[in-house]
Amino acid sequence: MDTIIMTIVIFSGISGVLAAILTISDRTIGNYGEVTLTINEDKIYTVKGGSSLLDTLRNEQIFIPSACGGKGTCGYCKVVVLEGGGPVLATEKPLLTKEELENNTRLSCQCKVKQNIKAKIPEELFNVKEYAVIVEKMEQLTPTIKKLRFNLGEEEISFKPGQYVQLKAPAYEGNDEEVYRAYSLASSVNDKHAIELLIGFTGGIATTYVHQHLKEGDMAYINGPYGEFYYHEDDGPIIFAGAGTGMAPIISILQYMADNNIMREALFFFGARTMNDLFLVDKIKGFEEKLNLRFIPTLSREESPEWKGEKGRVPNAIDKYIENGENYSAYLCGSPAMIDSIVEALVKKNVPADKIYFDKF
Amino acid sequence: MIQVHPFIIFIASIFTSNMIFSNFLGMCSFIAVSKEIPTALGLGIAVTMVLSATTVLNYLVYWYIIMPLGLEYLMYILFILVIAAFVQLLEMTMDRYLPTLYYALGIFLPLITVNCAILGVSLFMVTRQYNFFQTFGFAVGSGIGWALAITAMAGIRSKLNENSIPEGLRGVPITLIITGIMALAFIGFSGMVQIQ
Description:
The complex is a heterodimer of chains A (361) and B (196). With 361 residues, chain A is an alpha/beta fold. Chain A is 25% helix and 29% strand. In chain A, strand 6 and strand 7 form a beta hairpin. The relative contact order of chain A is 0.10. Chain B is mainly α. Chain B starts with 5 loop residues before the first helix and ends in a 9-residue tail after the last helix. The model of chain B has no long low-confidence stretch (mean pLDDT 87). The chains are: A alpha/beta (361), B mainly alpha (196). The A-B interface holds A 3, 6-7, 10-11, 14-15, 18-19, 21-22, 25-26, 29-30, 32, 86-87, 89-91, 110, 112, 114 and B 61, 65, 69-71, 74, 77-78, 81-82, 85, 88-89, 92-93, 95-96, 99-100, 103-104.
């Protein structure tokens, strides 16, 4: 009996002493105290040190785009840290270019707030807000693509046509981490109280959440808008090209053009494998009637004789339809491989490189 | 209790009784983190620090708490407790003062907790009945020996990249083979000093 009591006493005693030491050191070594965060030299925040710059800014309601949830893999959360960021870490180096290293760009998810920090954040990110939204409608467009309409309630969102938002995928059965993934807005900029997204199923954390767990009437969280990919005013003709859910930002741009009677000549190359992969064709036909637009779906694997449209890959179709692209501008949205091949085809046709806007995902 | 000078134990545990090459302890991080010399050396230093400190703490715990109360069977769990707490403390300190090394070591820093070389040294100290100074020499020596082994392995593996290795042997298999060959070389030292 004595041994048992003795064992318990000794074991608890030693554990207690060690726990006390750890608690004290957490309060001293792990406590970075209050630090001052100076953003763009005019906004000053007093924050608690110790967490990453990304999380600290999120607590102050400043949302930096981040798709990987702070793991240092997506490279979206770049911020210029002028002072107090400490050395660039090995986890950041692969994602930073030489110029970015020179101008003190850091990944805000890796950079810890340990002392007073001075950072530069693009002004438009202050427009970014977090919204609690309700799934108003879910529509299966193809076997893998869903169109979701979210209601923002009282809140208002203002964005440029072509920009994207981030959807929060919470932990669910089979996934214990919370992640944010970027999806382009497919709705009209005039629709201030609701947004639409096209989400394809890839088997990833967020798409599994959307396709298998999210239901109409559910609550979800988004933040945004973000992105450098949006409609630029100009008068020359436009080339749109996209594949799969890459149609989303293009729809938003076409809607914007329709709302503002912009009659620029436009060609929309849409890459897909077969006729079954085409969707929202009626909507685009509607734009064709209203705008000076030509929709050119390009199917790479359609064998059926019913198909009278273009066959092959989008770059080949561009080659066929465009003679001289000197005064064109182009908006591309799709996979990196697809965009690279289209950019190559466009540059060959003399489309100026600074007027090729793209969004790789 | 054996009568060997602590300094001899110190030297012996670096070379003749190297934790990796004669006891094959601490293999998982030895294989996983021996790809580049700087990280290997960093982990080696961290292991040496943890080893030296925890073995001394465990010596005190063993001789002043466990032995007088006759609780030898609690030895394993208490040793692990001390090691885990110490690694936590080291992690906090490194995060604050050595962030570069902290991120370079990543997951392997908390994994030092379950590095068998650390518990192994504490247990050898008990079975070999070392006194305080012998224990200290043994712990520091074992740590340096482990660091030496992993750094040497990292050096060899960085040279290995320039050679063509059969596909099935790349990575861990060739590392194990090299460890074996290095162990053979270290066996050459054995018998020079007897520390147990």
